[in-house]
Amino acid sequence: MKPYEFGLFVFMLSAFLGFELIRRVSPLLHTPLMSLTNAISAIAVVGAILITGDKDATLLTRSLGFIAVVASTVNLVSGYLITDRMLKMFKKRDGHK
Amino acid sequence: MIADWLPLLYLLASAGFILAIKWMNSPATARRGVFAGEIGMLLAVVGTLLRQEVVDYQWIMIAFFVGSAIGVPLAYIMPMTAVPQRTAISHACGALAAALIGTAEYYRHTPHGFILCALILETILGFLTCTASLMAFGKLQEVLPTRPMTFKGQNIFNFTLFGCTALTGLLLAISPEQFWLFPILIVLSLLSGTLLILPIGGADMPTVIALLNSYAGLSAAAMGFALDNKLLIVAGALDGASGFILSVIMCRAMNRSFTNVLFGAFGQMQIKGHAEQRPVRSASAEDAASILDSARSVIIIPGYGMAVAQAQHKLRELFDALNKRGIEVRFAIHPVAGRMPGHMNVLLAEADIPYDKLVEMEEINGDFPTTDVALVIGANDVVNPAARNDKNSPIAGMPILEADRARTVMVIKRSMNPGFAGIDNDLYYQENTLMLFGDAKAFVASIVKELGALVHAG
Questions:
Q1: Where are the alpha helices (DSSP H) in B294-331?
Q2: Helix H or strand E segment including B333
Q3: ∠B78-A49-B138 over CA atoms, to 5°?
Q4: Which of B10, B38, B55, B60 to mutate to test the interface with A (most CBs of A within 10 A)?
């Protein structure tokens, strides 16, 4: 099997898994969900690291990679932190005060 | 040696992301979900840093540092009402990263065939999502006008532009050595993103933000194909699916199609010559307090106006004051209330309102006829009975919260100006409706005060 065929299988299975999982998320948590998936899309950082750290990197690719690492780190850090900050606020009863 | 184990880290990272989304299904496990997501991301980053291809760490570390220095304040300083804006800017960052990686990959290897196609798709989606998210940010932050911006022949112009972008991508896929095509592709993608959002109004932002989420994910998945990296494919597909489902839910909640949201320029039609003055009954905070005091059940319907006025904390005081009297208070949440899916829930949770009091539309609609008071705060179109009664209304068929069926309806509103969609709301002219004119936060505060005074008087 060629790498891309394998990739397409992985894509299809993940997409279906994603549909099934997300349908179960209560509308109550749609904002944190979106913020979490936004943080997960910072996975682009993997590609950015590979480009920036490459030993044959030219000035152009290293600069592009550098900006990409910065941008995806912003995405990653702020995405996870704010999701957690939001979820901390969801409480069932207010008897804890 | 280590290299043999690295794919395992990626595998575990994928599992982390899947668990993260799985645990988001309930507020009880959601924080564990975030933790799983964080671990997944950590494994992914470590697994990548340890790869043999990565030899130069200096710039990566500096970039991590700079990125965190921007990202941490972004997460903590932004008030909860600004969550939609923050999400938009974060989408822009993620998409920019994907697009730049696509660009760098192209100039580094100039690949052919399937990989090149994936790369082109990644770059188009990345740049498009980047400018589109920045535009959405501008509109949400109200740096740009929130009303749809339209010009003559806009849809034809946009379709031509999207066509040109696709065509350039295709040409490049056929003849990869034409280096001059790539910058053109970048510019066209950037323009497409900008023009895509131009005609979209504030009320349609929930759908659009969800859609941009999906694009950012698909762009990451395309990168996975280009770099032959399964982890990227898994994470990207999960995001793509998530954003897609959310935007479908939003469209359904407005009874509109994707095409209508993206190209319909909804909300631009102003009521013309609709100057007919109809009588409304207005009331003071004192009246409102005594009506609430004698009620047994109250449903509060928040909308974007509550977010703008930052009224959620005052609403919490009202909630407490009524609860103390043994009055049942619940909140009815319309799926598209606010500027992103679930926006109202987060704001009310911020004000410490227990989440089991936040009820979805389908569940609560049947209870309105037996409810004493429906209190509408900063919501308009989502309670407009025209959606049910008037076939010619622009919002005809949109599922609404049936506040009009409650025994008494109270609406806190600044003035009689029509809502975002520019549609007059019959709810305001009903016999059982009382209009409470004023700023949402100040008015709720004075109701709470009057309720307190009633206790002393009684």
A1: 304-309, 312-324
A2: strand B328-333
A3: 30
A4: B60
Calculated CA dihedral for residues B310, B313, B315, B319, nearest 10 degrees: 170
- Kindly report the nearest CA distance between residue A59 and chain B, in angstroms: 10
Q: What is the pTM of this model?
A: 0.90
Here the tokens at position B324 are 């103390």
Given A31, A66, A72, which is nearest B345 (Cβ)?
A31
Would you state the structure tokens that stand for residue B26, as one six-digit string?
A: 């309930």
Report the candidate in B129, B408, B113, B146 with the shortest Cα–Cα distance to residue B265: B146
> Chain A 59-88, CB below 8 Å of chain B: which residues?
60-62, 64-88
Mutation for A interface: B238, B324, B382, most A CBs within 10 A: B238
Does any CB of chain B come closer than 8 Å to the CB of residue A9? no
Contact A52 B56 (CB under 8 A): yes
**Residue B7: how many CB atoms within 10 A of its CB?**
12
Ordered per-residue pLDDT tens for chain B, 458 residues: 677 888 899 999 999 999 999 999 999 999 999 999 999 999 999 999 999 888 989 999 999 999 999 999 999 988 888 899 999 999 999 999 999 999 999 998 888 889 999 999 999 999 999 999 999 999 999 888 888 888 888 888 999 999 999 999 999 999 988 889 999 999 999 999 999 999 888 888 889 999 999 999 999 999 999 999 999 999 999 999 999 999 999 998 888 888 888 777 665 554 444 545 678 888 999 999 999 999 999 999 999 889 989 999 999 999 999 999 999 999 999 998 888 889 999 999 999 999 999 999 999 999 999 999 999 998 888 999 988 888 888 788 899 999 999 999 999 988 776 655 567 788 998 889 999 999 999 999 999 999 988 876 65
**ipTM over the 0.85 cut-off:** yes
